[in-house]
UniProtKB/TrEMBL annotation:
Keyword match Iron: yes
Record protein name field: Gibberellin 2-beta-dioxygenase 2
Family from the record: Belongs to the iron/ascorbate-dependent oxidoreductase family.
Domain of life: Eukaryota
GO molecular function, one term: metal ion binding
Length: 206
């Protein structure tokens, strides 16, 4: 990825994940068929008919870490949202090994060049779905700041001022704020420099 972005120090991203103290984690999600769920678990009234039951198993969100690598069994359910209101299914394929997602931290590390994709998992009404997910994360004290080569910008007010889309933060700082918010919130916005300069029209030049 660093090579693709023409960042000379090509290990800049992999070093963060390969750190001995990396906060990377592995999660296994189990989605029983929703017909087996009790109304109590779904937060529905007991007389709600099964056809009106929401089928979202894992609510929409972006992953906070750097990189996500996911594989599921052959039950469909994963969906990504390339734009608000649009959900595109990612079909499981017996020979396709993994889905790879950019996380919030990689979006910050690339100064917004790579986008953290919003996704969710739907439950299947008749078949159990399982997914296994590796989240590549930095160490808690790692400072998240994009390489200087990616800070080439112009703003109408300050045409020559280098512009960071996000203020720098440590991974532990991000986790603390991210996990205090709701899953579906755009948590990276808390670190956006555009919020504090909202009257400043900014365009990023590639
Ligand atoms: O189970 C899935 O397909 C998605 C899981 C997920 O998004 C997550 O664990 O962060
Ligand atoms: Fe996720």
């Amino acid at each position: 990825m660093a090579q693709g972005l023409k960042v000379p120090q090509t290990s800049v991203y992999s070093n963060l994940i390969m750190d001995l103290h990396s906060d990377s984690l592995f999660r296994i999600n189990h989605y029983p068929p929703f017909t087996n769920w009790t109304p109590h678990l779904l937060g529905q009234d007991s007389d709600t008919s099964p056809t009106t039951i929401s089928k979202v198993g894992f609510g929409e969100h972006t992953d906070p870490q750097i990189l996500t690598i996911l594989r599921s069994n052959d039950a469909p359910g994963l969906q990504i949202s390339p734009q608000r209101g649009l959900w595109v299914p990612v079909s499981p394929h017996p020979n396709t090994a993994f889905s790879v997602f950019v996380g919030d931290t990689l979006q910050a590390l690339t100064n917004g060049r790579f986008k953290s994709v919003r996704h969710r998992a739907m439950v299947n009404s008749c078949k159990t779905r399982m997914s296994m997910v590796y989240f590549g994360a930095p160490s808690p004290h790692a400072r998240i700041c994009c390489p200087s080569e990616l800070v080439t910008t112009t703003t109408t007010k300050a045409p020559h001022k280098p512009y960071h889309l996000y203020r720098s933060f440590t991974w532990s700082e991000y986790k603390k704020i991210a996990y205090s918010m709701r899953l579906g919130d755009t948590r990276l916005d808390q670190f956006s420099t555009l919020q504090s300069e909202n009257s400043d029209e900014t365009t990023i030049t590639e």
